[in-house]
Amino acid sequence: MIPRYSRKELTKIWSDENKFKIWLDIEILACEAQCKLGNIPEKSLKTIQKKAKFNVKQILNIEETVKHDVIAFLTNVGSYVGLDSRFIHMGMTSSDVLDTALSVQMKQAGEIILKDLIELKKILFRKAVKYKYLTAIGRTHGIHAEPITFGLKFALWYDETQRNIERLILAINNISVGQISGAVGTYEHLSPFIEKYVCDKLGLKTTKISTQILQRDRHSEYMTTLAIIASCIEKYATEIRHLQRTEVLEVEESFSKGQKGSSAMPHKKNPITSEQVSGLARVLRGNALASMENIALWHERDISHSSVERIIVPDSTILMDYILNKFTSLVDNLVVYEDNIKRNLNLTNGLIFSQKVLLKLIEKKMRREDAYRIVQNIAMKCWKEKVSFYNLIKKDKDAMKYLSIKELNHIFGSDVLKKKVDFIYNRVGIK
Question: Does residue 316 share a domain with residue 380?
Fold first, then answer.
């Protein structure tokens, strides 16, 4: 069973409630660290720990006046804590809270997407095993080339998905950092101990150096990783779209009872999910570009990145989860028409074995130029007259001077292909 789209879980991560909760955790943890350093009385810390809370609606109302989200938050929290609230945010700047909290949220969202990728990988593994030896036509430039097996398509996607898992793990690791270093990152009014204490408690690493912010190459790496994943999904979806064309019809997206494909044409069964994820991949690539634009900021900080990130980071993680769930379900329920795969394999009357004939003639010491000319001439006749390439080779005196019937039969067989497929699968790790 494919897990349903995790919109609720991700929406919760990006909710004001969760964001302010993380902000409050950071502020309380910073107070704990300050207390350990002797900068806050223990009694005041206990008051902060007991009374500190927030009200989302009140924060947003305060922000309408002060035009500053962190000040609005601190004002609201302070109204619950009282006089001891003077110790909250001591020596800190807004970005200490904002950037550290954003890292927590991106880590949380990334871990959901990672689970999605692992689920897709499992489905691709099963499909690769199921169709491992189903011989199909391979295409280059959209034109029939040589035989492959249908399972190799899934094996390729499986291997690529594993790389995407590795990329995402690295991106999550590189965004899982926090900073509490003060106004321009010099710890002028803070001890580095506070930063480490807070980050350890939140499951983050501390950045080696910051200005007033975490540097945006981290965020861009994360966003471009999502864009790469989406682009890979688009590639798979494009393949499915081509294979579902009426003239090909090797696969088809599942069509549920009661589903309709066209308002005008009752017969239509369209690859709508493949087209949908192909289109949505463009949104993620656009967001990734915006994240790269955020890397260049003025001096120790400006806020030109902030408004962008409030849109692109939540939207991209939610969209990535949606794409992965939709596509995983598509693959799991994909209809494969094996008879059509066989029909298409034989569509060119054996022309797909031309290279094997060429190489065999060369192996038998025919000059390459001569061998190519002979095989190409026969191939063009086969193509024009729609007759058997095997029979034309068999009747060609120049070719059969070098070939036996047994060798010819071997050339047009598939046993060698299956052995090569075993090699590829073992290397990919599908056994």
Answer: no
Angle at 87 between CA 81 and CA 91, to 5 degrees: 140
| Structural domain contains residue 35 | no
Which residues are tagged catalytic? 141, 262
Residue 130 sits in the same domain as residue 220: yes
**278 and 220 co-located in one domain:** yes
Distance between CA 197 and CA 32 in Å, rounded?
Answer: 9
Is residue 147 within 8 A of residue 414, CB to CB? The reply is yes
What's the CATH code of the domain at 368? Answer: 1.10.40.30
Q: 48-79, pLDDT tens digit by residue?
A: 999 999 999 999 999 999 999 999 999 999 99
Is residue 55 situated within a structural domain?
Answer: no
pTM: 0.92
Q: Tens digits of per-residue pLDDT, 259-303?
A: 776 566 766 678 889 999 999 999 999 999 999 999 999 999 888
- The widest CA-to-CA distance across the chain, in whole angstroms, is 103
CATH of the domain at 170: 1.20.200.10
Question: Tens digit of pLDDT for each residue in 335-344?
Answer: 999 999 999 9
What is the per-residue pLDDT across 189-238, written as a single tens digit (0 to 9) for each? Answer: 999 999 999 999 999 999 999 999 999 999 999 999 999 999 999 999 99
Which amino acid does the sequence have at 116?
D
Q: Tell me what the pLDDT averaged over the chain comes to.
A: 93
Residue 2 has pLDDT above 50, yes or no: no
